[in-house]
Amino acid sequence: MHNSTLETDGISALGLTQTNMSCIKSDGFKYTLYTAVFSLVFIVGLLFNMAAMYIFACTLKLRNETTTYMMNLVVSDLLFVLTLPFRIFYFINQDWPFGRGLCQLSVSLFYTNMYGSILFLTCISVDRFLAIVHPFRSQALRTKRNAKLACCAVWVLVLSGSLLTGFLLDTTSLRYKNSSVNYCFENFSNKQWKSSLSKVVVFIETVGFLIPLLLNIFCSVSVLQTLRQPQAISRGGQLNKTNILRMIVVHLLIFCFCFIPYNVNLVFYALVRTKLLKGCAVESVVRTIYPITLCIAVSNCCFDPVIYYFTSETIQNSIKRKSMAVRNKNKLDKGLQTNMLQSQSIIQNNPRTQFYLESTV
């Protein structure tokens, strides 16, 4: 197995210089983990995001700035979810037979989804900050047109970075010499890490994670401080205040749970691969944690619909109206069915009525 190899390092786990120090790298468990988690994410993520797309496209009559960001987030999630069957096939067979182009596209869509999700969630957080902290001054800024422009800017930024990452790097390589079995998503050489990937990591960690994280924290803290002021209750009511607090908690929990572990570990992973951070123990820990944090990050496709529900009262009202319409329709159908049964019973029990019906047939 390629994932149980020996590699020589010049620094031991204790930081002492040694020669011929062998670091055993065994992360073969990741294929079973990826197969199980990605299969679950594909099923749940596809169902949830298709339901969200149906709500946005068919049942949501009133659209605002927040729903604009959410619709773009749904598109980002669905694009990634649709590539998961190819990844699952690869993790099961440990071979990529679909060609270099599809591998590069799959890598690009992974980064598009992750950092697109981060940026769209940040847009929602900033929009909520403007609406609550600066409700009057932000009216001219918070328009559907500006929301669409912000979404276009996010797509341009994310696609430019992710497509460069996916299509300029050698994402596929032969697993063994004189073999047709191929890698995908992994096994980048140390040369690639030092020349290209390290710069990519610095860029995406700064623009795609660190700045959005700080913005999310700042906006959430500012909103909480505003809600603590006495005039906030008179402006929105206690019920609104409770809903907003719930939005913030759900938003931050999902953001922190999905994205912080992966992006923090990615920095250490890059340091290990570029040999800036050495030591067998460090490398073993980073390589073991990386697949786990990646699975957690991918699960954001399943959690985003939860944010849609808790963040938008428009969506909540739309779902409530839809459920009430279904309940009313069921009640009407039951009432009609009961009336028909009663009518049939009256006809059967009344010989004159039955004779009249027979004679007119």
TrEMBL record:
Gene symbol of the encoding locus: LPAR6
Family: Belongs to the G-protein coupled receptor 1 family.
Origin: domain of life: Eukaryota
Principal location listed in the UniProt entry: membrane
PANTHER family per the UniProt record, alphabetical: G-PROTEIN COUPLED RECEPTOR, LYSOPHOSPHATIDIC ACID RECEPTOR 6
Gene Ontology biological-process annotations: adaptive immune response; phospholipase C-activating G protein-coupled receptor signaling pathway; positive regulation of Rho protein signal transduction
Keywords linked to the UniProt accession: Adaptive immunity, Disulfide bond, G-protein coupled receptor, Glycoprotein, Immunity, Membrane, Receptor, Transducer, Transmembrane, Transmembrane helix
Membrane topology: Multi-pass membrane protein
Compartments where found: Membrane
Pfam name, any one: 7tm_1
This protein's name: Lysophosphatidic acid receptor 6
One GO cellular component term noted in the UniProt record for this chain: plasma membrane
Gene Ontology molecular function terms on file: lysophosphatidic acid receptor activity
The keyword Transmembrane is annotated on this UniProt entry: yes
Domain G-protein coupled receptors family 1 profile: 48-308
Segments crossing the lipid bilayer: 31-57, 69-92, 114-137, 149-169, 200-224, 244-269, 289-311
